[in-house]
Design a protein that fits this description.
heterodimer; A: about 120 residues; mainly beta; 7-stranded mixed sheet; about 0% helix; B: about 110 residues; globular
Chain lengths: ~120, ~110
């Protein structure tokens, strides 16, 4: 149980275009979703926290207008990298938190999305 | 916000030896401390966690200790095996609502030499 699906797993785009990454909780309702960014050989940096139906809370230094986060339902959150540039190339990972099958809170990571901006 | 520091950044041990990774945190309100194992390009996998009301927790070859006063916690892996080779991250969180916004340490690349 507590499966999180993230798509796409790998995407290449041209500079200036926008890319959308989806994070879905498959077998539980994710009241909160988190988005992380990870550069090669570095740690996961929390970008933002989103609660279903409300605006995301961004960490300091993360541009809200560049990284648009939508959490419209209890099973889906999306991250849109707008006007992507090569420096946005990174590994983006979501995690979802909510009540699992037993009622206990679960926190599960998606498999990550590798974005390469040319 | 929370600041989590992790040492060492790399660690090599002979198969069968023990490995210890240490982390410190800055926010005394943090009360949940998970450890994750991440293989290259894959999602972090939770291997063990500890809450602030517990000082030590063990699961087979893996144990975690927490010193709240000093604000540090450690991961201990005994009888290491080659498949333990990976990057390990500690994290800290204030999980009042059950939703865990984790702040990660910088990671430790563990290599177990056969």
């Amino acid at each position: 149980g507590a499966v999180v699906s993230q798509h796409p797993s790998w995407v290449i785009c041209k500079s200036g275009t926008s890319v959308k990454i989806e994070c879905r909780s498959l077998d539980f309702q994710a009241t909160t979703m988190f988005w992380y960014r990870q550069f090669p050989k570095q740690s996961l940096m929390l970008m933002a926290t989103s609660n279903e139906g409300s605006k995301a809370t961004y960490e300091q230094g993360v541009e809200k207008d560049k990284f648009l986060i939508n959490h419209a339902s209890l099973t889906l959150s999306t991250l849109t990298v707008t006007s992507a540039h090569p420096e946005d190339s990174s590994f983006y990972i979501c995690s979802a938190s909510g009540a699992g099958a037993t009622g206990a809170n679960v926190l599960t990571f998606g498999a990550g999305s590798r974005l390469t901006v040319l | 916000g929370e600041n989590v520091e992790q040492h060492p950044s790399t660690l090599s041990v002979q198969e069968g030896d023990s490995a210890v990774i240490k982390c410190t945190y800055s926010d005394s309100a943090s009360n949940y401390f998970p450890w994750y194992k991440q293989e290259l390009g894959k999602r972090p996998q939770l291997i063990i966690d500890i809450r602030s009301n517990v000082g030590e927790k063990k699961d087979q070859r893996i144990a975690v200790t927490l010193n709240k006063t000093a604000k540090h916690f450690s991961l201990h892996i005994t009888e290491t095996q080659p498949e333990d080779s990976a990057v390990y991250f500690c994290a800290a969180s204030k999980s009042r609502t059950g939703a865990n916004n984790l702040f990660f340490g910088t990671g430790t690349r563990l290599t177990v030499i056969p």
